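ok, trying the design again with the full structure, not the truncated one.
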């Protein structure tokens, strides 16, 4: 779907609605790929063996999968219509039940794991308040209203920066087996949660122009930087022990995830400049580049790292190894092009030479790499650790 969207900038495709296809692409990427991977990994690592025997987890997974397939088919066909909204609502209720089951059954072994996992689940539930506001927003003020736009941004912000990010960090704590001082971690955690809530002010400021939102976002960004610095100090001495037994590919994948996380924090610092904060929203290339940095760089980077480290993906499989390398190459190439085009527009230089053609060609690496990984999984049955 993403590749088709990129091609539509090169040549028109009759009968395909760009906006509808984009809704399908975003819903399947978030609720199909990331959500279902987190579902499986949280179930595998945090739910005790005896609770894993409950048939409800398997049934709930497949009901959730049906909801994703429904959205995958109906969003490109009709956009937001009765059937697509029905499947979206079905997915939300599945996620509520998943939260209930995990809250009840999960047994994290350390304080950081427990805090991060429960906070991730809370943010997942909290984010859906934005979805429930969409109907009243359309009815009361219309789709062009600030109310409607803020409801969407509320959902996306707490999905990406809350549920997804806290969940992969909970899994990272589980994988890395880091020994962290509980008192110091509480400080890092409180700063991180506070920054996640306060940085919602930036997307809100796109719809409601008021200097107060700039200052609230500024406080959130500073708290996030402080949290990151303290966290690095906490784990720095143990990172070498975590990385040393890993293969070069595992190190590369985890390195991509951590580098992308650092880059995300730096970009948010840059956006503290008021003029750049406005530009970051107005120039679409920056918005897409930032979203993909979070989704493909941080979240997918960590998910690939967990998959390789636990033998869900096979390091010895040539096709899976090259699939991962191609995916990462595609990610880097498309990010460079997106941000270069954004800078070109910011400097009033027009379009970057052959931008859309090069972006499409670079994007081919992403589905090609994923297709190779998928073929490799069918050829190789994982020996789950």
């Amino acid at each position: 779907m993403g590749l088709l969207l990129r091609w539509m900038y090169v040549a028109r495709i009759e009968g395909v609605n760009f906006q509808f296809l984009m809704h399908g692409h975003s819903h399947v990427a978030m609720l199909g790929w990331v959500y279902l991977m987190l579902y499986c990994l949280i179930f595998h690592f945090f739910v005790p063996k005896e609770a894993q025997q409950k048939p409800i987890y398997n049934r709930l997974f497949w009901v959730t999968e049906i909801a994703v397939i429904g959205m995958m088919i109906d969003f490109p066909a009709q956009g937001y219509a009765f059937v697509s909204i029905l499947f979206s609502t079905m997915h939300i209720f599945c996620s509520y039940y998943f939260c209930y089951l995990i809250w009840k059954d999960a047994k994290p072994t350390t304080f950081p794991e427990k805090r991060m996992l429960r906070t991730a689940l809370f943010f997942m539930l909290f984010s859906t308040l934005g979805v429930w506001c969409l109907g009243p927003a359309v009815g009361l003020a219309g789709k062009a209203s600030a109310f409607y736009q803020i409801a969407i941004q509320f959902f996306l912000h707490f999905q990406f920066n809350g549920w997804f990010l806290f969940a992969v960090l909970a899994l990272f704590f589980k994988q890395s087996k880091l020994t962290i001082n509980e008192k110091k971690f509480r400080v890092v955690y409180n700063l991180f949660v506070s920054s996640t809530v306060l940085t919602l002010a930036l997307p809100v400021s796109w719809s409601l122009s008021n200097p107060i939102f700039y200052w609230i976002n500024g406080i959130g960004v500073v708290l996030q930087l402080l949290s990151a610095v303290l966290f690095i100090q906490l784990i720095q001495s143990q990172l070498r022990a975590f990385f040393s037994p890993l293969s070069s590919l595992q190190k590369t994948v985890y390195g991509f995830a951590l580098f992308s996380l650092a880059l995300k924090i730096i970009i948010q610092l840059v956006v503290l400049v008021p003029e750049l904060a406005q530009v970051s929203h107005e120039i679409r290339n920056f918005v897409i580049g930032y979203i993909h940095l979070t989704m493909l760089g941080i979240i997918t980077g960590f998910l690939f790292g967990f998959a390789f480290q636990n033998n869900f993906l096979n390091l010895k499989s040539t096709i899976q190894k090259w699939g991962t390398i191609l995916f990462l190459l595609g990610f880097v190439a498309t990010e460079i092009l997106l941000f270069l085009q954004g800078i070109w527009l910011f400097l009033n230089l027009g379009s970057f030479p052959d931008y859309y053609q090069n972006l499409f060609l670079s994007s081919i690496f992403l589905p090609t790499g994923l297709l190779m990984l998928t073929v490799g999984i069918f050829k190789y049955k994982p020996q789950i650790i």
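Keeping the full-length input from now on. The chain has a mean pLDDT of 90.
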